[in-house]
Design a protein that fits this description.
Elements (H helix, E strand, L loop, with lengths): L6 H7 L6 H12 L17 H5 L2 H9 L23 H12 L27 E4 L4 E3 L6 E8 L6 E9 L6 E9 L8 E3 L10 E6 L6 E2 L6 E3 L4 E8 L6 E3 L2 E7 L8 E6 L4 E2 L6 E8 L4 E9 L4 E9 L5 E7 L10 E9 L4 E8 L16 E2 L10 E8 L5 H16 L13
Antiparallel strand pairs: 1-12, 2-11, 3-6, 3-10, 4-8, 4-9, 4-12, 5-7, 5-10, 13-22, 14-21, 15-20, 16-19, 16-22, 17-18, 17-20
């Protein structure tokens, strides 16, 4: 949120009365219209002056509070690729434009609306995997978390370079996470799931959320998809008040080039979550010391509703600290995965750490319990979790197995109850 004491100074820094055509349209078309156009998930478009003028005060308020655009990290600017974060000056421009009556300016100077295609963004896929029949989302009740298992019918092993998830009903789908699996674990074609998918998948492809386009794999780190694999999609649906249906499809893009690199999941987590009702500052931590040098290329956080803040950082062998992720106001409804704009070199013996803070009091507006109730670790939507997954590529690929052994040892120690909880300070 913008500092209310500093906001008048920001408004004063906007040099003149802003107009839509040259000051506001570039901000909205670049940062908002991706979701706010016909056929997308947002409830109204923001592609024309008329669209924006009648909502000028609303736009000013939701951007001032940083409720929109939905972007949770508060780390250094340009730390992540594809940031959906407005600058303070952009927010002040939108506020001043609403304040002076939302003038249009010269329509001839309004930039063109981007071309939004209903087709596949990367062209025709090499393989399309589709849900065989529509899934029905009930009109009422809590959010629906459903897993779908669909055969891929691959005649040979392939190397995945990109994919695009396309729901048929974008307004009903909150997000989706995709996996491949070539195990023989028996899974139904469709089954309720939350947190886990019921099997240990062969590979995680990535996720989709509104406003996101195709997902490309990291260069030279394409994902190997074994012959006979099936696609598992975990989809989160929102009941809308009326019965809805969705029949998603996934476009898969392959390359004949075998990957020369591998992305390892350096997972930090804690199961020591037992939060008394009314506890407003409950902290869990975890850490891991890297046995090899890696490039951190992305990070994926996960928690549920009573988590309020999370912080991940790396302490290098020379004592310097690097921010990996800071979210000061976690919102489960806008969880995402984040790629760094540039790989972050983490030398051997770097200590990576996480700290998650929970508010299980009645003062937490996102607490699902009224009055507050005890919350423990679990996969259910009203339980809690703590996970920070650092996506890492070894600097020297021949050392990958060493990293894998160390991570497996960490998992085994956690099963033995060696996770710890320490007094902590809130994320900075």
């Amino acid at each position: 949120m913008i500092d209310l004491l500093a906001f008048p100074l920001l408004l004063a820094a906007v040099p003149r009365a802003p107009v839509y055509s040259t000051d506001v349209a570039p901000i909205l078309l670049q940062n908002c219209a991706g979701c706010h156009h016909a056929g997308e998930v947002a409830p109204f478009p923001l592609t024309t002056y008329e669209d924006a003028k009648k909502r000028a005060k609303l736009i000013a308020e939701v951007t001032r509070t940083r409720y929109m655009p939905p972007w949770q990290p508060s780390g250094p600017p340009h730390h992540y690729a594809g940031e959906r974060r407005l600058s303070d000056v952009q927010i002040a421009t939108l506020a001043k434009w609403a304040e002076v009556g939302a003038p249009e300016g010269n329509p001839a100077k309004t930039p063109p609306v981007p071309a939004y295609s209903d087709g596949w963004k990367l062209g025709p896929p090499d393989l399309t995997v589709a849900l065989p029949k529509p899934f029905t989302i009930p009109a009422e009740g809590g959010d629906v978390y459903e897993c779908f298992t669909v055969p891929m019918n691959l005649a040979k092993t392939r190397y995945l370079r990109a994919f695009e998830f396309r729901p048929s009903n974008r307004k009903a789908v909150h997000h989706a996470i995709l996996f491949t699996d070539h195990s023989r674990v028996k899974l139904d074609a469709s089954y309720p799931c939350f947190g886990t998918i019921g099997t240990l998948p062969s590979a995680g492809l990535g996720g989709w959320s509104p406003g996101n386009g195709p997902t490309r794999m990291y260069e030279d780190a394409e994902i190997t998809v074994e012959q006979g694999s099936r696609l598992i999609a975990q989809v989160h649906y929102h009941p809308s008040g009326k019965e809805e249906q969705d029949q998603w499809q996934v476009g898969l893009y392959f390359t004949d080039k075998a990957p020369s690199k591998h992305v390892a999941d350096v997972g930090l987590s804690s199961k020591l979550i037992d939060i008394p009702a009314g506890e407003a500052h409950y902290v869990v931590r975890d850490h891991f010391v890297l046995p090899i040098a890696v490039y951190a290329v992305g990070v994926i956080p996960h928690a549920h509703y009573v988590c309020r803040g999370m912080h991940g950082w790396a302490t290098l062998p020379d004592g310097r600290k690097i921010d990996l992720l800071t979210i000061k106001d976690w919102n489960f409804s806008w969880q995402d995965q984040y790629r760094y704009s540039k790989p972050i070199l983490l030398p051997e013996d770097t200590r990576v750490e996480m700290e998650f803070v929970y508010d299980n009091s009645d003062a937490n507006p996102r607490n699902p319990h009224r009055p507050a109730q005890r919350v423990t670790w679990g996969a259910g939507v009203e339980d809690e979790m703590a996970g920070l997954h650092i996506q890492a590529i070894p600097v020297h690929m021949e050392e990958l197995s060493e990293l894998g052994k160390a991570l497996w040892g960490k998992v085994m120690r956690s099963v033995g109850g060696s996770f710890y909880r320490l007094p902590a300070t809130p994320p900075q």
